[in-house]
Amino acid sequence: MAVRTDIEIARAAEKRPIPEIAAKLDIPEAALIPHGRDKAKIEADFLAGLRDRPMGRLILVTAVNPTPAGEGKTTTTVGLGDALAHLGHRAAICLREASLGPNFGMKGGAAGGGLSQVLPMEDINLHFTGDFHAITAAHNLLAAMIDNHLHWGNALQIDPRRIVWRRVMDMNDRALREVVVGLGGAANGVPRQTGFDITVASEVMACLCLAEDLADLQDRLGRIVVAYRADKTAVTCRELGADGAMVVLLKDALQPNLVQTIAHTPAFVHGGPFANIAHGCNSVIATKTALRLADYVVTEAGFGADLGAEKFFDIKCRKAGLAPAAAVIVATVRAMKMHGGVAREDLGREDVGAVQRGCANLARHIANTRGFGVPVVVAINAFDADTPAEVAAIVDAAAALGVAAIPCRHWSEGGPGAADLARKVVELCDTDSRFAPLYPDDIGLFDKIETIARRIYHAGGVTADKAVLAQLAAWEAAGHGSLPICMAKTQYSFSADPALRGAPTGHVIPLREVRLAAGAGFVVAICGEIMTMPGLPRHPAAETIRLDAAGEIQGLF
Fold first, then answer.
1. Residue 251 annotated among the catalytic residues of the structure
2. Does position 71 have pLDDT exceeding 90, yes or no?
3. pTM value surpassing 0.85
């Protein structure tokens, strides 16, 4: 019997009316803004009324460094949430929204897999409720107002060579990384070099995901630094008068989206910054809403724990005053084999030695995560080809560090397949979590970058040009020295070399560029060859995505 694809499973699933899902968290139907029958936004007045409620337990799901073999972090997040609900707990899930770039590129969607998916899968992976389009529009409105200001006399004395605000679109398009605008004569503006980033790297996305309410969002947008004058003083969004109109475009997008899993567990899917080039977490407003409505909230942070978990702890939790009760690190036998040196085409053969070697990657993520004071459990996302000896190798490697590693079959069995994991998570949530960020606010910006590189990546050091160091010093002098760091680095390795798997030590992290996100409240450190506008692969997924004769989407994964 052929194995059904994720989209076939999702399409066959029974969806309950969204008011029925909302009722599980005591959200009244009057507080819902329906987007069809199976998704809704939650209106602002209801959210404001939750602020004095106590919060439930926050559980982070993270993973080993990703490999082409796949780890299933989102699938495990959904499976764990369903498992907690299956055991009778009041549970909710918080996920990021999917970007169109990877959907039509190589990575695919972000709705989970198998029987552990959020629905409606097709909508979530495509336009959903339009949040990303609103972010793109607000970002590009600000870009248009900058060039319009130059055209009409430049009263703020912006230096066109020092405009740092680029444009965005939610698609992978390498041809737009570096562009020239304003060509064609005086009527078309002032010619200058600029470029595009992908929407999920936009500071507007980060501002929305970290904002507590509309007033906070407008304040953050107003603080965005868009350019500098010849004397190198900053020009902000507020000085251009763009922040009010941007909030108008974003007022609906700030309201969190409520959907359901295949097992009808409530799920908040809201916001979507990438974790390799942005801060990689869903919105603060969605997470806090879920925590005030549920006893256990399961959320994820993008890619491996060296990026996603570190940014979740050091940016989101620091800024939002959150304290996670437990962390789950997802690993697979296949990923451990690849980190142990096995080629993708040889993953089907049993190789216990390779699993043992690859577990060095898992062990480092365990140590790093526990270093934040958060109790840890490992979820072994099971595949049919895994052998008992290979699974035992992961269990033994984790046990040597005093951590449980639990095989899970939530892809094929849904919540019941992760029940053992859920029981362990509840047990950990009752222990004493002593969460603390990796570094204090009051050390230098470069010191923070070095701290992450040495303590999380186990690097030998960080290299940077004098111009980069001078820029960091200038931001410190301007009052931005207390900001945390958002590392933009390859997700595939602890190093800046995506081919260097396992647990390398002593490597050097090349700091290529830094960007100030004064509105979001962090400094982006761009390392190695990482791009803030990805490109499409040789054969993008878009080549096989289509509508069939029945009008149903095929090829989406």
1. no
2. no
3. yes
